[in-house]
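Example noted here:
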Amino acid sequence: QVQLVESGGGLVQAGGSLRLSCAASGRTFSMYAMGWFRQAPGKEREFVAGIWGRSSRTDYADSVKGRFTISRDNAKNTVYLQMNVLKAEDTAVYYCAAGVVGQSYNYWGQGTQVTVSS
């Protein structure tokens, strides 16, 4: 069982930056693929970024490539999402997720709100 707690959301002006953090419980954090997803009002939840494997391979949605960076600190059981050059369309609830590499994400945090004002 993995428990995830996100933090770092808030209100920021367009063009600004935020860093989200996700603290995970458990002793096998390094074995999990970690991801960030988001859900805007009236829209379905969408993938934002993922990180997995010993070499910390990463993947990003096209809409955030070049602006967002996912990283992890296995010693702290924490995954981060650095968000730069934020746009109004990045406004959403951001969720951290964990899963066995190669399988679906099956552990989810409670979400943190990110609001970008234009």
